[in-house]
Every structure is written in C-alpha cells, then in structure tokens.
C-alpha cells in the first residue's frame, strides 16, 4: 500500500493540477508494490495509469489572451507582462539555433500527439550569451509564436 507521504504527494499534485507529478508518484507506488511481491496490484496500478493517460483530453490553449495576475506590493513596479507580436522569421538566426527553436515550437503545436504517448512539450529553455545577443528578443519571438505572455 502507498505510504502516507506518497498519498499526501498524490493529493497535492491533484490540487496543483500537476498531472506529470501525479503519474510519477503513482508509478512509484506501483514499483513499491512490485518490490513487495504484490505483482497483481502493481499491474493494476500501471494499467490504470496507462488508461488514464490514454483517455486524457488534450487541453487547448484559449485563442485569446491568457489572463495574468498583476503583481502587487513591492513587485508592482518591477514586473510587466505583454503579449508580443514578434515572430521567429523576424530574427536573424544561425541555422542550428533556428532548427532548435522550430523544433521547440513544433513540440508545442503538436502537443496532442505527444500526449497520446504520455509525453509533454518542453516547458523550459535556457538562453545564454553576453548582453545584446538577442536573448530577450528570442524570448519575445517564442512568446509571439505561441501566443503566450512575456
């Protein structure tokens, strides 16, 4: 049976809407049951996870603007949010960088295909370089392409 920590983590992941974490913890429960010799329970848990993943509805992003919470207090004057119109074809990029960015965009645009296999598009990207090399402009173009806030 799942430990109290695993049950709490499962409940928290549902409350936070973190499906990936929920499935990871559920798989840990199945693995623990298999180690205890409870093969049937482990198989049933894995089957339930596979069934849930395959029947999940792909969440579509709204076509309009994404609501953003406005910062208050000390952060109010420091943070701003915008919905840029910049597109990737407005940037001058090396071929390798452009291929990587287009692959990232393709992952997000075909998230429904990835979801069928229990995967999700990358959610993090690290842009590095000295000042003035276009990190912010690249972020703006990605946000514009994905219709996400910056």
Folded structure, characterized:
- The chain is mainly α and 150 residues long.
- The protein has two domains: 52 residues, no CATH class; 74 residues, no CATH class.
- Helix content is 53%, strand content 0%.
- It is elongated, with a radius of gyration of 20 Å.
- It starts with a helix and ends with a helix.
- The mean pLDDT is 82.
List the helices and strands and how they pair.
Blueprint: H1 4-16, H2 19-35, H3 39-55, H4 95-109, H5 111-116, H6 135-146
Helix pairs in contact: 1-2, 2-3
Fraction of residues in helices?
A: 40-55%
How many β-strand stretches? 0
- Ranges with pLDDT <50 over ≥5 residues? none
- Number of H- or I-type helical stretches: 6
Give the terminus-to-terminus CA distance: 44 Å
Biggest sheet record:
none
Shape field? elongated
SSE string, helices as H and strands as E: HHHHHH
Helix/strand-derived category reads mainly alpha
Calculate Rg over CA atoms.
Answer: 20 Å
Averaged pLDDT: 82
Count of spatially separate domains: 2
Portion of residues in beta strands equals under 5%
